[in-house]
Amino acid sequence: MTDLTVYASKAREWLETVAPLYGKDVRKGLSVEDDLALGRQYQNAKFKAGYAGINWPTEFGGQGLTHLEKVAFETEEMGFGMPISYFGISLGMPVPILIRFAEDKPWVKERVLAALKGEEIWCQMFSEPAAGSDLAGLRSRAEPDGNGWKLNGQKLWTSWAQYCDYGVIVVRTDPNALKHKGLTYFWVDMRAPGVEVRPIKLAAGGSHVNEVFFDDVRIEDSQRMSPVGGGFGVAMATLMIERYVATDSSGFGPPLELFIDLAKDCQINGKSALEDGRIRSAIARNHAMRVGLESITKRNFQLMQAGMEPGPEGSLNKLISVRSRQKLSEMAIDLQGNMGLEFDPSAHVKEDWSASWISAPTGRIAGGADEMLLNTIAEKILGLPQDYRPDKGVPFNQIPA
Amino acid sequence: MSILYDEGQLAIATESRRILDDKASTSDLLALLEQTGVYDRPFWETAIEQGWTALALPEEFGGLDLGLVELGLVAQATGAATAGAPFLTTCYGAGQAILQAGVKSVQERWLPALAAGEMIGACAFAEGNSPLPPQPMARYSGGRLSGVKDAVTGGLQADFAVIWAQGDSGPVLVLCELEGASRKAVDSFDNSRGYADLAFAGVPAVLLAEGGTAQSLAMDVLARMAVVTAHEQTGGAEALLHTARDYALTRRAFGQPIGAFQSVKHRIAELFAQVEIARANCIHAAAREGQPDFLEAAASARIAATQAYDIAARDCTQIHGGIGVTWEQGLHLHMRRARSLAIEQGNLFFWEDVLVGELSGARV
To answer: With pLDDT > 90 as the criterion, what percentage of chain B qualifies?
Structure first.
């Protein structure tokens, strides 16, 4: 056994001991507020057990290990259905970027420890009504205000903002500059006067995303985390800082075994659905796709263990797995006929086909829409040119609307 | 566990690709299409010179004692080149059947000859549209074989074939020298594959396996050949991906390279995904050689690779527009090969059923 497999099996042992306290069974039927409270307890338990900030520097309360241990832990953790989603963005992007770019280190350490213990949560405010995939098209603005800044505008799709204490934000500070050049990056106190958070109810029924409005919000210059006009670079660094994360070939939906079990229980025209060629074909092709993604993940993990860069094909996982999950979920509902019409809004997305189906579109959009992922593959991996870009080389305020 | 290729394996991949690139001639391959029963002899001589025939056989029979991983890498290169002969796979399958059946005299008679490239072997399992019929029509009784095998890959040139037949009490695997069989070349859309209808009228044959052993051996040999073919399909699909990319970078329309249009670049990006999923499946399957889940891994690789090659053949041609459908440009070599390889070693229907059987605990 390698050190890493020992690490993973110890992690698994620990997870098994705490699963009865925080796992998917005890979470059933909890309100979001109660589930979040449970999540904070779990995060604190992770911190005490040495499973928080696994690959972060020890001087900031991390464990000082590598991304290999972090990915190994996340991979083990995934199956237990722990209440971790509230902290995923916080610990995945804003807090590590704070460690790298914020100046006041004692203050940073306080924040990092509070975040690792689940006491404080950070959000990441990039998207806006007019800037999603085209992030640099954002319009929220900060204007000089004495020795600090005054912030106005609106952010959108901000995950868990309603529960957040702090956030990082990228805003326009110079509308006369090229679109990528006029941006600056700050952290903000989500409780500051002028900040208003309004949850958005999504199609699936939940409200984990928000609109955030800023009305003359005062920001000190010490909250600036990039050079003035250098915000886009820090925004990109934010998206890349924890790029080694555990992946799931089922697209964060149900495992294929669940579909096979369903097919065994259902009939099509009087015969077992498992004997139906259409169902068999869907099972076989889904399995082949998942084996491929899992093999890519394992191979890349081995490459990292050998000290090499993982291959670019690792970027395929979300694109391929989530849309496959969407189609398979539709088929699973069809397979149940009239029995498939019943809907339980509190069902778990990895255990219920309707829950998986109705939230699948979010997965194909959040964190990079399918189309943007295809652009990235085409341009960065295959070297194909960018599409026609009339916004290039033009000051932001002269871009054709 | 999946594997990382070691230096020796990477060298096999680079070297086999380099050698085949040096000898590649689209016009020679096109000429083969218009002649029934002719194969690319220089390619096969190269394969023998390079020791590819010896690759996966044990040292005691003159082999190099390597396995599916290495043979797969060579097959990926032959797939990229749409090589003009099918014997790498057919000889491997025949050799594996002989090796695993364990009849010493048969091993000594055929394996060194296969390793040295002196003999060509084929596998004749399919009948009609069934890749491995539960009750084959070909009959084996009293040491003699009778019946018909349709469109056997490499059957036109093979010296012998391993044949799936009905014995006195259930299916058997037998080895039959083809001198005594009558062969009729099949005029195909992919003519260098040596397809031949074989007819046997009481031809002497040697028993390799019977009963449950014959069944599991035939399935294992078919799965092994399917993994080699999956590598070949992946190699073909990857070559098409690069061809499509290169064309999209150079061909201009409406004032820019067509690769700038998302309708084109997304098609190519999707192709990349198909190729990588097929490749990852191939690596996984080759690494599972001899393990209990090998059949499952082989079926999965076969499905992923068949899909990838079909999509690549379709989309690469589409991206080329008119030039893509000309005889001379030769993309149809891949289009044809994508279909012939999709059928050899069992079609998608067969492998989907095998895979679901493995996954649901109800083997077909």
So the answer is: 97
CB within 8 Å: A291 and B280: yes
What CATH number is associated with residue A282?
Answer: 1.20.140.10
ipTM: 0.95
Q: Are residues A134 and A236 in the same domain?
A: yes
Q: What is the mean pLDDT of chain B?
A: 96
Q: What is the mean pLDDT of residues A201-227?
A: 96
User: Domain range for residue A362?
Assistant: 256-367
CB < 8 Å & 24+ apart, contacts of B209-214 = B209/B101, B209/B172, B209/B173, B210/B167, B210/B169, B210/B170, B210/B171, B210/B172, B210/B173, B211/B169, B211/B170, B214/B164, B214/B167, B214/B170, B214/B171, B214/B172, B214/B173
A175 inside domain = yes
Whether A283 and A362 map to the same domain: the answer is: yes
Taken in order B272, B277, B281, B287, the sign of the CA dihedral is positive
Q: Does A236 lie in the same domain as A131?
A: yes
A292 to B360: CB separation less than 8 angstroms, yes or no: no
Instruction: For residue B153, give how far its alpha carbon lies from the nearest alpha carbon of chain A (Å).
Output: 26
Q: Which CATH architecture has domain B121-210?
A: Beta Barrel (2.40)
What is the four-CA torsion angle of A155, A156, A158, A161, rounded to 10 degrees?
70
Whole-number pLDDT of residue A310: 87
| pLDDT at position A253 over 80 | yes
Instruction: State both tokens at A32.
Output: 């979001």
pLDDT attached to residue B144: 98
pLDDT of amino acid A89: 96
Q: Does A391 fall in a domain?
A: no
CATH of domain B7-115: 1.10.540.10
Contact B304 A256 (CB under 8 A): no
Mutate which of A261, A280, A295, A304 to disrupt the B interface (most B C-beta within 10 Å)? A295
Instruction: State whether B280 and A313 contact (CB < 8 Å).
Output: yes
Indicate the CATH number for domain B216-360. 1.20.140.10
What pLDDT does B1 receive? Answer: 47
Of A295, A382, A386, the CB nearest to B2: A295
pLDDT at B156 > cutoff 60: yes
Task: Collect all residues of chain A within an 8 Å Cβ-Cβ radius of residue B309.
Answer: none
Would you list which residues of chain B are within 8 Å, Cβ to Cβ, of chain A?
A: 1-4, 245, 248-249, 256-257, 259-262, 265-266, 268-270, 272-273, 276-278, 280-281, 283-284, 297, 299-301, 303-304, 307, 348-349, 351-353, 355-356, 359-360, 362
Transcribe B45-64 into DSSP letters.
HHHHHTTTTTTTS-GGGT--
Q: Say whether B256 and A260 touch across the interface (CB within 8 A).
A: no
Q: Count how many domains chain A has.
A: 3
pLDDT tens, A80-94? 999 999 999 999 999
Amino acid residing at B58: P
In chain B, where does the domain assigned CATH 1.10.540.10 lie? 7-115
Residue-wise pLDDT for B249-264, tens only, equals 999 999 999 999 999 9
- Closest CB to B356: pick one of A283, A306, A379: A283
